[in-house]
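note to self — DONT lose this again. spent like an hour looking for the file last time. sequence + predicted structure for the chain T wanted, 353 res
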Amino acid sequence: MKIRLLSLSFSFCFLNCFAQNIPLYIGTYTDGHSEGIYKLQFNLKTGELSRLQLAIATENPSFITYSPNKKYLYAVSESLGGSVSSFKIQENGLLKFLNKVSSNGTGPCHISLNKQGNKAVVSNYRGGSASIYSIARDGKLNEASQIFDYNTTDIISHAHSAQFFRDELYIADLGMNALYQYKLKNNNYELATPSIFKTTENLGPRHFALTKNGQFIYIINEHGSSVTSVKKTASGFKQIDYDSTLDENYQGKNSCADIHLSKNEHYLYGSNRGENSIVVFKRNKFDGTIEKIQTVPVHGDWPRNFTLDPSGKFLLVANQKSRNISVFSIDTSSGTLTFLHDVKAPTPVCLLF
């Protein structure tokens, strides 16, 4: 009887512990330390990362994203002959290659899908363009249906990220210092606003975060080491705030990278490459303005992409140059971060839950 009880207890513990673990996929640069997309197990209770394994070998998958049902994974190949690939997620968590299409520009650095999972948009950093794709029911990518080329005779475009929101599409162009707004008409996206904010400075808008209702947009500026806060109004867009991402005592060079809202949208997080930190802002949910409340070191070098886990209790940072992933706990009552631990990983640049 005791043996049976011990067996049942062990089985329950094993299943419970297993249920607490979810996969974390890692996009990388294949620079000799990495071979492609990797996978780790993440413990939702403790924040522990374990069981690093290669999910699939592929060239420079610097940005990766899921389909909404998490049956498929999509990755850019940030190279001169830019491409984007689709993969099927197998039962063991490893990836099976489905197909590859041209990104229609060199250096693709970002991909995102719409809520329905039937369209994707890819940003080409070196090519200065963005491409729209339809996605088949089997997860495969069709050739691009629309291509936006932002290069002009006197300014070099660097499209860096894009997101769908309902029937709209937003594309951040670091070279053009613009965040374009498109609207869907007759199954094509048409330019509605050349830029949702105005600037005479070389800020370099890189990534951005939208609130769930789409009313507020927070843009992190790579060159400006700052966040531009914009509110959507009945007549267009209005800039409501502009804040530095750096500690007031920091005097060195810096390039901002990524930005995310907390699950409850009370807090905003941004990454600084150079200062090597995560900045935390408290957000006023009524007027959308933000206030800096914390700057924490990332315990690594060159924090590119970071992400919040599905529970909203942990924040994980991909430190590209030091080749490690840092894990922070989030105090949900204050939004502040506390460093827990880190693990080594091959040139991580994108993290995906």
